[in-house]
């Protein structure tokens, strides 16, 4: 598997990205800056045409990163069910997208 395939699951020009950051680096704009560069690289070097990302509506920091990176909210799923560490959780799931 190439390094590119290790990082991204690319299907027909589409991929999904996500992120996590240590609290020490929160509120400095680092994540938005990093995600902008990843998006630029994906569009220009990997021939990606569409990138999506999701988060809970309570994760303001994450959806603000998406908005700062010119991603558009395309969907909000109310009462979305997921399994986290073996426990079912219910939340409103936001889906954002950018096309290049």
Automatic annotation (TrEMBL):
Residues 15-72 form the N-acetyltransferase domain. Pfam families: Acetyltransf_3 (PF13302). This is GNAT family N-acetyltransferase. One of its GO terms (molecular function) is acyltransferase activity, transferring groups other than amino-acyl groups. The lineage of its organism: Bacteria, Bacillati, Bacillota, Clostridia, Eubacteriales. SUPFAM superfamilies: Acyl-CoA N-acyltransferases (Nat) (SSF55729). It comes from Clostridium estertheticum. Keywords: Transferase. InterPro entries: Acyl_CoA_acyltransferase, GNAT_dom, N-acetyltransferase.
